[in-house]
Amino acid sequence: MRALSLDRQVVVRALALALSAWVAFTIAALQHIHNPYWAAMPVWVVAQASRGVVLERALFRVLGTLLGALAGFAILQVPASPYAQFALLGLWMAVNGGLTHVLRGVHGYGALLAGVTAAIVVIPAVLAPGASLSLATARVECTLIGVVVATVIIGLATPRSPSQAFFAQMRRLAADAVACAAQMPRRGAAALEAEERRILGEISEVEASSRLILAGSFEGYRRLHDVDSLVVGSLAIMSASAALWPEASSLSPSDGEWALQLDRVAELLRQEAAPRLPGSPSAPAGDPPGTERLRGALDRILAASAALERPLQAATLRPFRRRLAVLAPHREWSQAGRTALAAGTATFLAAALAHATGSPLVVQAAVGVSIFSLVLGSLALPQQIAPKLLTGVVGGALLAVFYRLAVQPALGSTVGLLLSMVPFLLLGGLLRAHPRTAIAGVDTNMCFLLASQAGTTAVASPGDVIGGAAALAAAAGLVAGNYILMPRSSVRQAEEAVDLIRRDLLRMVESDPGAVEDWRARGSRQILRLSLHLGRSKDLGERWPKGMLAVLSLGQAIEQLHELPSPEGGAGKAEALRTLQHLAEDPLRTAVALRSLAGPQAGEALGRVLLDLAQSLEASTDLLAFGRPGPEA
User: Fold this and answer.
1) Spatial separation of the C-alpha atoms in residues 57 and 43, rounded to whole Å
2) Cα distances (Å, whole numbers) of residue 351 to 66, 137, 446, 473
3) pTM of this prediction?
4) Domain interval for residue 257
5) What does the alpha-carbon distance between residue 305 and residue 300 come to, in Å, rounded to a whole number?
6) Domains contained in the chain, number
7) Is the pLDDT of residue 1 over 50?
8) Which stretch of DSSP H or E encloses residue 632?
């Protein structure tokens, strides 16, 4: 066991997986369901690290399978040529492929299964048009069997989600953000760029996993609002401090009082069992302008932390109330478009080629191309998973060839069939349960079941057996090779996030009421999204844009400019808005123009806002110029 690095937890999990797959296959085989090996397939993907994800993934697999089977059967009933039907299938795959980057957490898994199931129903109908209904029915029946068995057996062997540990981690990151803000009056924001970058990276990674950690719990989803509020408050506290204290200078009494109070709050947030947190610090005498943002951010952190401190049991007694989200959903629209185009096009071309050739091997390869295109396309960085998928598929294909040529011919009864699957499923359970082989293990098991055709009565020659396995491996090689040779770029994704930030700012300048109202939610989300992509990029190294959080201050200043009453703003306000229309083209020149407008003629209120705009623009220059040519690039 030590040589194989198998501890007790891995062995128990492997046995639970193998037992689930074998029981599901046995039920389907004894019921004489067409393609009974389908029943074992949900086991390998439903299995997850926490019970909540297992339950929710099982639910969405059933819903996605039902929807995909209905869509596939409906496409085959369209009175049109096969190529028109394949075009409809390609469109269906494109829609669901795009949804995998729009629906977050486990929800996107339903879209993935809706696409995969439709392809499994439609493409094999090239050779057997009359079997589409039986294929769809068998697919649904096997999925229901596999999901129910896996949920019961694996669910009982899977621990609950570590929600309390997750909340504690979020509070520690909020404490780091408050502590960073406390250092800015002493050292200046410029000296804390590395610490700010670390906190941003960790918050973005943890927040991205929140919906998986809290899956399967209505209360957990309600708590997501508090998590979002804590995240927004953490970003806002660092942004407000950086705007107040951009450079190190001698501390005034007010600055020193703020630093001490922020230190105290950070210490309380770090305590495992923190007492009730105090209210927001009172305004020290001689408080400089702009501290209202600092106080508002701290209020948000304190309120969210107090909400997360309450026991889940007490919170469940409260009726569910819809609360306004403070963080915009994480939706990768550009990535969704690319995935939709790739999955839809690959599916149409593969299905059309299968129809044109009429070859069973090409049909099997076409099914593989459609599935692998959707699976890899749904990932954030498919180039990291593609080699493991290819390894798993090839390994599963080789196992399937061995099974069909060496084991299957010796089987003479149903009992023999069921017993013959035991060693292969035990091996599959070990591969899936071990951390080093877990990802490739999924594809090894899925491909073994697909290529082995276990439980079917069709007789195939050795050439057909080898050819079918090779077809699946070739499909995986074609799709995975595309992502390996032409990897998805994290730098490009970061540039797209910055482009959205620029567009949102310009929408605010153009007085779009929705843009001003949504800036806090959208701006914070784009900063997190940008940090996530920058953290994943190996091309940039430490070359992150400077002053990333300053853009939040810029958005707040634009909002304050809009809120100035007309008599107070006058013509200067209109001129400032016209000047800001060039903020994305040349931030530094725009800042200089704003400072020139902030003369005595502007008045006290407008002048203060114009100076805030200029300072925020100067601090945001590196970010606004990121990824595009220009004088600042």
Assistant:
1) 11
2) 22, 21, 21, 17
3) 0.85
4) 163-281+290-316
5) 8
6) 3
7) no
8) none
